[in-house]
Amino acid sequence: MPFFFKALTALFTIVDPIGLVPVVLALTAGMSSRARFITITRAAIIAGIVIAIFGAFGQQIFDALGVTADAFSIAGGVLLFLVAIDMLFGRPSGARETPREAREARSEARRNEDVSVFPLAIPMIAGPGTITTIILLVGASKSNPVQLTAVAAAAVITLIAAWLAMLVSAQIQKRIGTTGILVVSRVLGMLLAAVAAQFILNGVGHFLGIGATASLAR
Fold first, then answer.
1. Cβ neighbours of residue 8 under 8 Å, at least 6 residues apart?
2. pTM over the 0.85 mark
3. Is the pLDDT of residue 213 over 50?
């Protein structure tokens, strides 16, 4: 159970469902309720497929490239820490969407209303940060069936939360406003920074053979 909550915290903070609200409002402006529902649902499904693929085969890909679990844990932790810093300072994170991708997304939205694949599913939900997190969590599970199930459950809950947040984005924006969204993102950024630090400690500790004091696999 502790591993499930750690997995849920890591995935929930990196996806940041509340942080999706302003993006969804901008990209789906002018859509009918039905078109908006279809677009948001398709985005969540596509993101889920991408996350499942990297969760199942991500480690094999890195093994084929000769990347060790320790190296990836350290590199992934550094990436997540950079994302956490961006969240704490209220800056758009390049691990989710680069400025160039944002410009292309706006152009795509003007040309075609279907923005479910890009940028909603990728990279807003299933971006590099999310992919890194899911691979790290699967690696931390050590192929334990219970912990793998916990990672899968955490991913499903996070995707459902993102889907619901996108569906009711207008209501969320009205109730908590832009300031409220930024406050939530900063709190989640603090949690993500702690998770990222733990990934780094795990990688360094395992490499040095001393072990981290509080492994994510516990």
1. 153, 154, 157, 158
2. no
3. no
